[in-house]
UniProtKB/TrEMBL annotation:
It is found in: Golgi apparatus membrane. It is a single-pass type II membrane protein. Belongs to the sulfotransferase 2 family. It comes from Calyptomena viridis (Lesser green broadbill). Pfam families: Sulfotransfer_2. It comes from the Eukaryota. This is Carbohydrate sulfotransferase. Its main location: Golgi. InterPro entries: Carb_sulfotrans_8-10, Sulfotransferase. GO terms for cellular component: Golgi membrane. Its EC number is 2.8.2.-.
Length: 165
């Protein structure tokens, strides 16, 4: 379809029939990450210009979901997993395992394409960082964050997230 070759990248620019045809013709892959880890990464990258993680989290909570930056906005509102049926969901921290499976399913050579991942080290580091950062938050902030990301926590299996409780 000629309009598919245009530079439009937002599905909202197409009608429902075109959207369904496009989504049906692609392999859809969604990369997800624990929302609390996304907050930590954003804070550490300097997007949170606050002196403390607790202040940064309070700003995130005060912004609400409608005014939230894409860096910490709930994934469900960004990628619409209830509307788009993704073929694969790849969890951060399991890239080597999951991308290897995806490449094998598509018939591509796995070992020659995948870079070296350090998934185990990344998981351990974020677990330690999460413990440290989570302890800085008040109980009220912890509950508010869990509520803020409730749909992400329901949609994806972040079983070891500090927000899952």
């Amino acid at each position: 379809y000629h309009r598919w070759r245009t530079k439009e990248t937002h599905l909202s620019k197409f009608n429902q029939t075109e959207i369904e045809a496009m989504l049906g013709s692609y392999t859809k892959v969604l990369f997800v990450r624990d929302p609390f880890q996304r907050l930590i990464a954003t804070f550490l990258q300097g997007m949170g210009m606050n002196p403390s993680f607790s202040s940064f989290v309070q700003d995130v909570l005060d912004s609400g979901t409608h005014n939230a930056s894409a860096a910490w906005k709930p994934l469900v509102s960004l990628c619409r997993p209830c509307l788009v049926q993704y073929d694969y969901v790849v969890m951060f921290g399991f890239h080597r395992q999951e991308l290897g499976h995806l490449l094998r399913r598509t018939g591509l050579p796995v070992e020659s394409i995948l870079p070296e991942f350090t998934d185990t080290q990344v998981q351990w580091t974020y677990r330690w960082l999460s413990e440290q950062m989570f302890s800085e938050l008040s109980v009220q902030q912890q509950k508010q964050l869990s509520h803020f990301y409730r749909w992400d926590l329901a949609a994806f299996s972040f079983s070891s997230s500090f927000l899952s409780d």
